[in-house]
Amino acid sequence: MATAAAQKAAETEPGGAGSTAARAAEQQAAFDEAVAADERIEPRDWMPDAYRTSLIRQIAQHAHSEIIGMQPEANWITRAPSLRRKAILMAKAQDEAGHGLYLYSAAETLGVSRDELLDKLHSGRQKYSSIFNYPTLTWADVGAIGWLVDGAAITNQVPLCRCSYGPYARAMIRVCKEESFHQRQGYESLLALSRGTQAQHEMAQDAVNRWWWPSLMMFGPPDEESSHSEQSMTWKIKRHSNDELRQRFVDICVPQAESLGLTLPDPDLKWNEARGHHDFGPIDWTEFWDVLKGNGPCNDQRITQRRRAHEEGAWVREAAAAYATKQAGAPRADTAATAHGEATA
Ligand SMILES: [Fe+2]
Ligand SMILES: [Fe+2]
């Protein structure tokens, strides 16, 4: 943020009657002006507490989804049907770990620690995307996840590249590039199955039938029931409503499903000439809320495995911290050489 208003806010003299209230008003005005001008809010800038809290909630939930999302697909790494598929799937799962790291780092710029966020995930006080509470029953699920789940993630995340909070927006640029690869590999894998034997084609269709509706739920509840949407849009954290993004995703998927030679499991899905969009059938929001409450098929399994992975990784964190402390205390070779050079010059 580098607007004239921000500058003015920074230059305001402290002290004097009513100066605290005046200063707060100026800070708020500078923030509002920066958001209105599509400038980025950076970690050292003043921001309303509610904006900070809302971003921490959203970025943490996003980070948690990236690392929990590794589990359903990791389930198939050892059983990938070829070396090529295994290498692709391992690369994808590693990308998701990387996305988690960028996002936890982005959250840390808001003054919250990674330990605190992980603790909230492990104790159920922060959520991750409900889509990862569904099981991966066959190899085709890996393709369906790449095509539909990563595809829905891209639809959600491309607008986040213009999010008002700088570190989140910048993390999203790299994440979206990698998500494109994830979506493509899923599509290509499903295409190979769809054009394969009858059994392979049926397996691909079955996976799409199971993942389609949960993918539509990834955009969150309908606009009229979405508690955070309106404020997030005012702050330009979000740029489009849940229903807008869901519609965009449906419109993208319909022709892709045709190219794949697969159908989408919705008898009401049809082009609406007047709207210029596809109409689609009602979403089972009872299922959505039920999974969100913890009653999905894999909620317990996912969180138990996450806690176990965290405990088993304790020695790695300890070793990394000990190494960092050692490095911070020891003189670096290049620094020592420079000092010596200066002394003899
Ligand atoms: Fe990701
Ligand atoms: Fe992904």
What can you tell me about this protein's structure?
It holds the Pfam family PaaA_PaaC. This is 1,2-phenylacetyl-CoA epoxidase subunit A. Residues 1-13, 326-339 have a biased composition (Low complexity). By secondary structure, the protein is an all-alpha fold. 67% of the residues lie in helices and 2% in strands. A two-stranded antiparallel sheet has the order 1-2. Helix 3 packs antiparallel against helix 5. The protein is globular and about 75 Å long. The two termini are 43 Å apart. The structure holds fe (ii) ion (2 copies). The site of one fe (ii) ion (FE2) has 5 residues, from helix 5 and helix 8. One fe (ii) ion binds at residues 96, 150, 153, 179, 182.
Short summary of the structure?
67% of the residues lie in helices and 2% in strands.
Write the layout of secondary structure elements.
Elements: H1 4-11, H2 19-36, H3 49-68, H4 70-74, H5 83-108, H6 114-122, H7 140-157, H8 166-194, H9 198-217, H10 229-234, H11 242-260, E1 270-272, E2 277-279, H12 285-295, H13 299-312, H14 314-329, H15 333-344
Antiparallel strand pairs: 1-2
Helix pairs in contact: 1-2, 3-5, 5-8, 7-8, 7-9, 7-11, 8-9
Bound molecules: fe (ii) ion (2 copies).
Residues 66, 96, 99, 175, 179 line the site of one fe (ii) ion.
Radius of gyration: 24 Å
Helix content: 55-70%
Order of helical and strand elements: HHHHHHHHHHHEEHHHH
Query: Uncertain segments of ≥5 residues (pLDDT<50)?
Result: 336-345
The proportion of residues in beta strands is under 5%
End-to-end separation in angstroms reads: 43 Å
Shape: globular
Find the structural class using helix and strand composition.
Answer: mainly alpha
Average pLDDT number: 91
Largest sheet: spatial strand order: 1-2
**Bound small-molecule species:** fe (ii) ion
